[in-house]
Design brief:
Elements: E1 4-10, E2 27-28, E3 31-32, H1 33-42, E4 48-53, H2 57-64, E5 69-72, H3 79-84, H4 87-90, E6 96-101, H5 109-121, E7 126-132, E8 141-144, E9 150-154, H6 161-164, E10 168-177, H7 178-185, H8 200-208, E11 213-218, H9 230-250, E12 254-255, E13 262-263, E14 268-269, E15 274-275, E16 280-282, E17 286-287, E18 292-293, E19 298-300, E20 303-304, E21 309-310, E22 314-316, E23 319-320, E24 325-326, E25 331-332, E26 337-338, E27 343-351, E28 354-355, E29 360-368, E30 370-372, E31 377-378, E32 383-385, E33 395-397, E34 402-403, E35 408-410, E36 413-415, E37 420-421, E38 426-427, E39 436-437, H10 450-453
Parallel strand pairs: 1-4, 1-6, 4-5, 7-11, 12-15, 13-16, 14-17, 15-18, 16-19, 17-20, 18-21, 19-22, 20-23, 21-24, 22-25, 23-26, 24-27, 25-27, 26-28, 27-29, 29-31, 30-33, 31-34, 32-35, 33-36, 34-37, 35-38, 37-39
Antiparallel strand pairs: 2-3, 6-10, 7-10, 8-9
């Protein structure tokens, strides 16, 4: 809808996080907190989204990209002062402005939309998002008048004993009539111990001016909780993980033990995929339907096709086709591509390599900078020797080639289609198609020579 604007406050340093990383850049389920808020706001169809930045402005801007316009608050003088940074863009415009926070990653676009609709449909000057909690200690209390409208917000330290009994609290999220918001921001004073300009004072000014101010109570208090330290970060992570896992289960994914399964907020998983305990799927990972993943598997920024099995393995920044078998205990390193019906077995490491359709490396093999064709068999203990101490080189293996156990393929080298490399060979020259390559010393047996070595222990 047009004439709706969002201002996200994200200028704080977050000293209680005890971190070099700026607070809003700390991740929840693999995504920075500020990105969670921007992404949810983007689903609310705002005409414009502004992010107020301060500490770590360049890093926060880089995280947001072009999804919102960043405005710099050079001095952090309070929430009202932060909102005023958007005055040049918004003051004098008709419409609705919602104030959000970059450290509330659990907020959803559904809750934002309900708050806006509640304010607009009731033609109110402002609506405060509130929640009812069992222990409101430390929160500002919502005091309503006889009509149910908001009469005032009382901070915990200023509340009377009777007001302290009120369980409805201020979450700090607001929806304003845009013109009225910016007409009053300049009247907010900083007569407080911190010498800062506080946004809730605008609510008080509206009430004093006999404007209609409403309180919209959400049923999801957890969505509104800010993250100020590592304990709250862990709580947000747990809540978000539950939300993400439930979403996937509702879409037809089986999680054997959701509490021990960690899914990125950005991953996608097809129906009928089964994920076993101890699995961590992070980043922009996309998994097709009917797969079996885990247990104890880590997948980051990978694309995986249909009905693939990945067992007790690590996959990073790679592409995997359909009907592939990986693991147990395999490591697929970045920039690898594994085609349909391939097999990467136990204790096999693949680095920046392409494994053709139906090819197999069943166990104890290193494939680095290799290109394998279709239906290649890599014997146990085979190594593509890709590094000479200065440069990396590529090994090319043609369709249907058979590489015997314990072979070293010293790159750059090409093994032709249908070629056969004998077990124990060290190949330094290319092998033509359908040729047999043997590169090992002739065995010599010296009878009774072991007795002269005197290595046996006398008993």
């Amino acid at each position: 809808m047009s004439n709706r604007y969002a201002i996200i406050l994200a200028a704080g340093q977050g000293t209680r996080m005890k971190s070099k990383l700026y607070k809003v850049l700390h991740q929840v389920c693999g995504k920075p907190m500020i990105r969670h808020v921007v992404d949810e706001a983007s689903q609310t169809q705002f005409s414009k989204i502004y992010v107020i930045v301060g500490h770590g402005a360049d890093a926060v801007k880089a995280c947001i990209g072009t999804d919102a316009e960043c405005l710099l608050q050079e001095q952090q003088l309070g929430t009202a002062h932060a909102v005023r940074q958007a005055a040049e863009r918004l003051a004098g415009l008709d419409g609705t402005t919602v104030v959000l926070y970059g450290d509330t990653p659990l907020i959803t676009h559904e809750t934002i939309e309900k708050l806006i609709d509640f304010q607009e449909q009731n033609h109110a000057a402002a609506a405060v998002l509130t929640a009812r909690i069992g222990d409101p200690s430390g929160y500002g209390r919502i005091i309503r008048d006889g009509s149910g409208n908001l009469a005032k917000i009382v901070e915990d330290k200023d509340a009377t004993p009777e007001e302290k009994k009120v369980l409805e609290i201020n979450t700090g999220i607001y929806s304003f009539d845009n013109r009225k918001l910016f007409s009053l921001l300049g009247k907010v004073e900083n007569n407080n111990a911190q010498g800062e300009y506080y946004l809730p004072d605008v609510i008080g000014l509206l009430v004093q001016a006999s404007e209609r101010v409403l309180a919209y109570q959400t049923e999801h208090f957890e969505e509104t909780v800010g993250v100020n330290d590592r304990l709250q970060l862990a709580s947000a992570e747990k809540y978000m993980r539950t939300r993400v896992n439930r979403h996937h289960m509702r879409q037809g994914v089986t999680l054997i033990d959701p509490e021990s399964t960690y899914l990125s907020a950005e991953c996608t998983i097809g129906a009928d995929t089964v994920i076993y305990p101890g699995t961590v799927i992070s980043g922009q990972t996309h998994i097709g339907g009917g797969c079996t993943i885990g247990p104890h598997t880590r997948i980051r920024n990978c694309e995986i096709g249909e009905e693939t099995v990945v067992e007790q393995s690590v996959l990073e920044d790679s592409w995997v086709g359909s009907h592939v078998q990986i693991g147990p205990f395999a490591h697929i390193r970045p920039l690898s591509k594994i085609h349909d019906q391939a097999k990467i077995g136990n204790f096999v490491e693949v680095k920046k390599s392409e494994i053709g359709e139906g090819s197999k490396a069943s166990h104890l093999t290193y494939l680095g900078d290799a290109v394998l064709g279709k239906d290649v068999n890599m014997g146990c203990g085979t190594i593509t020797v890709n590094y000479d101490g200065k440069n990396k080189f590529t090994t090319h293996i043609g369709d249907g080639a058979f590489i015997g156990c314990n072979a070293n393929l010293v790159a750059p080298v090409t093994i032709g289609d249908g070629a056969f490399v004998a077990a124990g060979s060290t190949i330094t020259e290319s092998v033509n198609a359908d040729a047999l390559a043997i590169a090992r010393s002739r065995q010599v047996n010296k009878e009774n020579y072991a007795l002269k070595l005197n290595y046996r222990t006398n008993k």
